[in-house]
Design brief:
This protein is an all-alpha fold and 96 residues long. It is 58% helix and 0% strand.
Length: 96
Amino acid sequence: MSLFSDQPPPSPPAKPKLTPEERRARYADRLITIRLRILIGQELEDRGIATPAAIGEALGMPVAEATKLLTGRQWREGDVARLQGAAMRLGVQVSS
């Protein structure tokens, strides 16, 4: 039995394509996420909250989770809801 074959290695499965509606929804979520991160960041700065531990306490979540939520670059489902909850906890007024 030979270790080498004439066939190319199997290719990884293709990523599923997003529908136009899904792309629009993600884009809208991304804009909301950016806006909420800015508003929350401004509120934390206004209150003089700067250390990761203090930020986690102010948002009511573990330090790592708070840091990931406020600085995350990758879209994750549920981020908008978590950011809205953090904004409400801080009393940030978010207009639609």
